[in-house]
Amino acid sequence: MEMVVCIKQVPMVSELPWDPATGTLKRDLAEGMMNPACRHALEAALQLKARHGGRITALTMGPPMAEEVLRQALALGADQGFLISDPAMAGSDTFVTSFILATAVKKYCPNFDLVLCGCYTTDSETAQVGPQLAEELDLPAAAFVEEIAKKKNCLIVKRLSDGFIETLEMDLPGLVTVSTRHYAPRYFSLAGIEDAFPDAAPIRTLSAVDLGLERGSIGVQASPTRIVNVYTSRTEKQNVILRGAPKQIVEELLDRFGDRIGGAMGKDIEK
Amino acid sequence: MSGIIPCMKHQIVRKAVREFAESELGPIAHDIDRDARFPWEVVEKMRPLNFFGLQTPREYGGAALDTISYAIAIEEVSRVSAAMGLCLTVHNSVGIYPIVRFGTKKQKERFLPDLAGGKRIGGFCLTEANAGSDAGGVETHAVRDGDSYILNGTKIFVTNGGICTTPLIFATMNPADMRKGFSVFIVEKETPGFSVGEIEDLCGMRANPVSSLFFEDCRVPADNLLGRPGEGLKIGLIALDTGRLGIAAQALGIAQAAFEAAVKYAKERHQFGQPVSANQTIQNYLADMVTEIDAARLLLYRGCALKDAGKPFSAEAAMAKLYCSGLAVRVSTTAVQIHGGYGYSKEYDVERYFRDAKVTEIYEGTSEVQRMVIARSVLSAPT
Amino acid sequence: MKQKLEIWVFGDYRNYFQNRVTLQLIGKAVELAKEIKATVCAVVIGHELDEWIGEYIAHGARRVYVVEDPVLKEYDAATYAFLTARLAEVHKPDILLVGATSFGREFAPRVAKRLKTGLTADCVGLAIDQDSLLVQTAPSFGGNLLADIVTPKQRPQMATVRPGIFREIPHNYEAKGKIIRMPLPIDLSSRRLRLRKSERQPHQSKKLEDAAIVICSGRGIGSRKKFNNLYELAGLTDAEVGATRPLVYAGWAGHDSLVGQAGKIIRPKILFSFGVSGAIQHTAAVNDAEFIIAVNKNPKATMMKMADVAIVADAGQVCSALIRELKKRIR
Asked: Which domain CATH number covers B85?
């Protein structure tokens, strides 16, 4: 089975400075990591490959340092990688990102059977790129998938959707976005990392020109959405800070919030 | 020279090992130290990830990492659990490397796959009651008897002592002239006459079962002689050169952990209405710690790069070991100081770092021996 | 004459009685409609829809677009997206809101793609700005950051909205609404994703999800023994105990206890958070807790910033003190 796994590099930290000039996050300030859900998607692909054979292509879009997630994908067992990287793509929203990814898939992996994405990323959390990529590639798609099995020319996928456990049969080629519930990712083996750095690495960098994309069709100017403000969500929260000896803290806590705690447990707490 | 600016591979190795160590060892590091328990359940998970064959060639099931990657792996494991880092560095460097370097093809095929796969654990047994820094005092002796050697003697303070199954034993075949007959044997634990003493109750590295090993008429096949008779000192010194890089990495990991704990605590702990990190004295401590750690890391990677380049690195390894171990002691001591009373409590990890750090100045050549090696190299250089 | 603007709300009627997000969105749409002088409309797709059409009108929709056919009986994101996009191409709504259910989050991106417009995910706020643009507030980094997003040019302006954010308007079954039906288009392609089995999730232990009080612990609790003390506290307060990933990995707590994006998403009345630093995967799962009491030695930990009461102290010691004090005070 020919598989394409879309992988995003996300910052390891949870709070990043925001650049008001471009309306985007200053990603270059943080160490990157493979987005957890993408790693689950890769794990699903690796398990399918172990069972049915085939090849895994890892595809990412991001700054040059995003090559790291492709190397990590190779280390975990992917066969080749494409890094879509071009300053002209900066600020692309999900609409444009899915367009660019689709263009790369059509041009460089046209014979795929299955595209796997993580169900969402930890930085922007839209969960939109997968379904939009399916539209671009005109594929059947199932989101938030937990288990995948191949049956003849179909895929049997299982997922939890709004309180229903659904079993679906999907024609191939198709697309799934993988949830973080089932496919617990494997650890890196050190030999795997060594293997990810052969003399001729199976990694290719693709620019907008390589993909035949016009400048006007990508990046921030082609994106329908605009971020106008980013701010910390909890800053206005006037929280109570308690310090000191544990006994005093606990007494103060129960004096001030005992009613609320007692209310939640349905018992009275003495003042 | 590679190593000054970390390359992508080294960053991935660091992240990968850190992820594993923090997930698997992080939650138990405190407990295994307190209970002096070796975490076999973690070993189980480490085996398929090549932690036991870090630099072993691929044909024997190892990862064949470059030496900087090796140092990073040891540093990152030691940052979380120095005792586990110790197990790995001893196993990989002084335990396996001599077999890779001096073993016959047959010996390599016989011993390396199980060692690199972590099915068997290596060890390095030189120290005895009357021999430590001076290898010349080794009293364990081997007597040829047909196709075997018969070993008798006692090794003490053996790292991995309680768990090693394929240790290297240094013994002399010529008690009259110890050096002439000084040799190395690969001895399997199942051999009759091989027994393990009580686990030592040590100050630090408590999760590593350090013990004595006893050999009583222990009959070892002649095929298990590593190198030629009388090559023991040469093999030992070469093994220790590479081992020192590992111990330096281990000490660096302890220093890094202590430093991170100190920074975290200095920002958390409030005194006089502000975090103690607002205090210039504390800032100076932290600045010195991080500068020294950075310097130590470069010193260590230089030694590693020389080894990979096939150049002499004996003095550089000694410098790295001397500096990193001293650093671990200094940084962990300062980290305890920054923590104040809490730092002296077993509640906080810095207390463990403090105890673990000291021995890095002692084993695999004391700091005094390192200085001897370094001075010898200085004085023997042509002027 | 310029046609009156329309705000559309997608009628996500599955789990109607638990999932009120469609009604909440109609309620919000009524509010927004006043500012831009728009008509509130619902879109309903499926089979045997009269009940939902009536409900949506009763809750504030003045116009309902309906595509009804037995072949549409099962929820299917691709088919529903095709039909919704087709309707939108004809009637050109200004705003299209979709509940951020599992289905909505799969369906809406496809509609947006078909309509070549922008979409903001999982919004927690909606407002109209001075240019009459819809300002969509979306969380990112597990709710640590909020972003205000607009779609200046393309139409409709689309958002998926988290359930429970807005209030539904009390029903009025006297209300009247216009029903506009679209026949099934002949170019609707056959399904390439077929539902083979769908069963309600068995009523599994939802103790953590349903608990009024949850006690969550992270690595900062210090030791397994101290972690186990939390069960005593839980016994006293009728609480459930949850854990972060490192503790689950260490075997201190079972996977059932994992509170995080890969485990349980909780919304207790009170969350006690002991020694949790606040990794994104965890904070996202506790974001909806009504009242958070966090204990951590580090006042700057993300969890402490999220907390209503932030206790700067050793988690294990506070737990023991709290057990002692509660024993004295609980009547």
From this structure: 1.10.540.10
Q: Which of C10, C131, C187, C193 to mutate to test the interface with A (most CBs of A within 10 A)?
A: C193
Question: Please, are residues B270 and B102 in contact by the beta-carbon 8 Å criterion?
Answer: no
DSSP string, C260-290: STTSB----SEEEEES----HHHHHHHTT-S
Q: Which domain holds residue A195?
A: 2-222
Nearest-CA residue of chain B relative to A72? B12
Nearest chain C Cα distance for residue B107, angstroms? 38
ipTM over 0.90: yes
Stated pTM of the model: 0.87
Verify cis geometry, omega within 30 degrees of 0, for the bond prior to A173.
Answer: yes
Query: Which residues 21-60 of chain C have a CB within 8 Å of chain A?
Result: none
Distance separating alpha carbons of residues A98 and C81, to the nearest angstrom: 17
Candidates C310, C273, C312, C313; CA nearest to C289 is C273
Q: Tokens in use for C181?
A: 């039906």
CB contact under 8 A, C246 and B27: yes
Split into its structural domains, chain A has a count of 2
Measured between beta carbons, the chain C residues lying within 8 angstroms of B23 are 245-246, 249
State both tokens at B383.
Answer: 């002027």
Chain B nearest-CA distance from C230, in A, is 17
Say whether B364 is catalytic.
yes
**Tens of pLDDT along chain B (383 residues)?**
455 788 999 999 999 999 999 989 998 999 999 999 999 999 999 999 999 999 999 999 999 999 999 999 999 999 999 999 999 999 999 999 999 999 999 999 999 999 999 999 999 999 998 887 787 788 999 999 999 999 999 999 999 999 999 999 999 998 787 778 899 999 999 999 999 999 999 999 999 999 999 999 999 999 999 999 999 999 999 999 999 999 999 999 999 999 999 998 998 888 888 889 999 999 999 999 999 999 999 999 999 999 999 999 999 999 999 999 999 999 999 999 999 999 999 888 999 999 999 999 999 999 999 999 999 999 998 87
Which domain, by its residues, includes B101? 8-116
